[in-house]
Write a structure and sequence with these properties.
By secondary structure, the protein is mainly α. The protein contains 16 helices and 3 strands. The protein folds into 3 domains: about 45 residues; about 100 residues, Receptor-associated Protein (Up-down Bundle), CATH 1.20.81.30; about 240 residues, Receptor-associated Protein (Up-down Bundle). Helix 7 packs antiparallel against helix 8. It is elongated, with a radius of gyration of 28 Å.
Length: about 400
Amino acid sequence: MKYRYRAKTKEGEEQVGFVEAGSRESAVNILAGHNLFILQIEPAERVTAGDRLSNFINRVKREDLVVFTRQLAILLEARLSLNKALATLEDQTTNSLLKEAALQLSQDVDSGLSFSQALERQSNIFSPFFTSMVRSAEVTGNLDQVVGFLADYTEREAVLVAKARSAMIYPAIVVALFCVVAGIMLTVVFPQIRPIFEQAGVDLPLISQVFLGLGTLLTRFWILFLIVLGIIAALVIDYIQTDEGRALRDDLKLRLPVIRRIFLPITITRFANASATLIRGGVPVAQAMEIVGESVDNVLYRDLLKEISEDVRGGITLSESIRQRPDYFPPLVSQMLAVGETTGQLDEIFGRISTYYGRESDAVVNNLVELIQPILMIGVGVLVGLLFAAILLPLYQLTTVIQ
């Protein structure tokens, strides 16, 4: 998104211009990186629904991002400079969007921006979690280690997503075939047999009446049905990408029981990983919590960790502040942190928390994936039974009338 700004330099000269960034805060950080004192900043253009839909469609595949991050980690571990590593990636990357992003990153870094500020300008590709972890690495001076962690983390998430997708292939095929068969039955078969039952004076069961009515509606208004379905899908996609939509999405992740079991361990893992990295690098706890708030990629936790940061500055221990928020942090987290504060090994405790909840998230996903197939099969079986019952019951009554 483009922002219009008015600022002053250290010498007192006023500047007016535009800056591209993923959010207003990102724009402020970019300008601050150029030693500008901001007087005014506002969006230069309104983000339309079409823009958000375009960003949703033109996304970099997770697999390509995994390869990009791993290659960057290897190059940095080989002691290549960041500029040279990005230039190398621009030559090696085959994905056109990533190639363009690597070129832009290299140019931004050459122009004096920090790596995290350059990443903020590519917010459609790199998540806030990715950017915030890089920012924390710039604070602690261990960029190669953090990029290596991001490569491992991205690969792990890609494996979980691939596992879930592979488990869904067979059920998805079954559901798709059922939808095709159901559509043919409703739009072709039911309208043709309806006059037979009406002429014979057969009283149709309620389920048959429902399917016959649905078939009539689809036959007459199928174009309108597809248009409405497309509009609803576009509105949902657009809403999810707004600030309000992201807040609602993050809230549902913590309120819905089954979804909470998946996302809570993942969020705690991110929180603990980022915290361990920052504290191990010598960042004060209060400041670390502020940075971690941008790393967890969750609006609710971002605000919550800012409150925790203020609590720590006010003299409350980190474990006590977290203990007061049991809906967001399991009791085990505050208990382990209390031990870390007592022993002076807070970074190590954060590492253990990350390992524990990382394993828990893996176990939950694996168990849910194994349950998806039988649940879907049972659901499809019930729907198929209802569909054929809507035909067989009237046929049975028809044979009874004829006899």
